[in-house]
TrEMBL record:
A Pfam family that the UniProt record links to this protein: DUF4224
Lineage: Bacteria, Pseudomonadati, Pseudomonadota, Gammaproteobacteria, Lysobacterales
Sequence ranges assigned to domain DUF4224 in this UniProt record: 2-34
Chain residue ranges for the region called Disordered: 39-59
Organism domain of life: Bacteria
Listed name of the protein: DUF4224 domain-containing protein
Amino acid sequence: MTGAKTRARQIANLRQNGIRHTINAAGWPVVARAVVEGTAAAAREPERKPWRSAALDKP
């Protein structure tokens, strides 16, 4: 995908281009298919609600 042959260069290239990826147990970058294909699921960021203690909601 990046043309780089080493792990460090592949990771650097992915970061430079803003491509979301994870690092597997062997240390190699892994890019989800949805990111490459540009599906809507990859474009959406998960919705995060601010943390709130359940103790505050008790009567």
